[in-house]
Structures are given as structure tokens and as C-alpha cells.
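Quick sanity check, LOB domain-containing protein:
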Amino acid sequence: MKSQEPRSSSSCAACKFLKRRCTPNCQFAPYFRSDEPKKFAKVHKVFGASNVSNILNEVPEDQREDTVNSLVYEAEVRLQDPVYGCIGAIASLQHKMVELQHDLILARARLACYLEQVQNINHTSNSGSGLDAQGNVFNMGTGFGGFQEGSSGINVDQAFDHIHNNLVFDHHFSTSSFQFP
């Protein structure tokens, strides 16, 4: 969609940057207003005016504003990160998402283990089982979870470290095609 503001008599940012006369049917004018000179400068530096013009010509008119916004974003990111550009930002976000999914799985496992311990403590409170001061499950009488009487107990943090080190989860996307910045 073209901007709803009426065109003023001044040149658009693209024509000012290119030092040319802005015509009433300038294809840049609806998307690069005169009060946004840096917007076009960034796009021009990365893509060039003729490439932007060709891209706008190939895109249906109702999608041109979104196209320009995308070009502006891509240009800004490319100027910030000349090597990776948008792919670097995407890879970084995907990597962060994988880390957060891993953390969520680990937190759920810890919660499930904790709830199981509480439930087992409630069921075995009469048999002498419980938690010691370090968070170890101990059993004074009948054994707990296959551990024999007199065993030192199960350290919950060690169990979670084992889960953390051996956790395998499914990726819904492939990150093998590029390096993370």
C-alpha cells in the first residue's frame, strides 16, 4: 500500500539522495518520504537504486510497501553484520530457541523428579525414607528405587546433570548449513 500522505512539492528521499528531479510518478516517492533520508541511503548502499527499482517493478503494487520495509530491514542488518546479515540474525535466534527448548525440557525433568520424590516420601514416610540435608533420597528400611539398604542415596543434581549431558532432542530445522556467529 502506498502511504496515505499527499505528496508535497519537495523531492522524495531517493531523488534527493540521487540528486535528480523527482517526478510526480516517481516510483520511490510513496516509500521513501523526504523526511527519511537515511532509510533510502541504507537501501541504496546495500542494493543500489537500479536493483531496488527492478525489485519494485517485479512486485505487485499492493505488496510494495512490505517489500520496501523488508529491504530496509535487510539493509540495516547487512550494514551491522556484513558477513552474515539476516542469516546471522536468524541463526542466532534459532540457536537461542534450541537453548530455551533444552532448558524447558530440563526444567520439566527436574520438576517431574521432584514431584516423584515428594510422592515417594509421602508414601514411604512410615518406612524411614526421606531427603537428607543435601537433597539425597535415603532409605533406612525397605530400599528405594532399586537401591539397597545402606546405599548412599541418589543425588538429584547428579541425576539432572546426567539427563543434561545425555539429552537428545529433535530439531525441527536444520542448522548444519551455516555457522552461528
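Posting the structure with no commentary besides this: Strands lie at 129-131, 136-139, 154-155.
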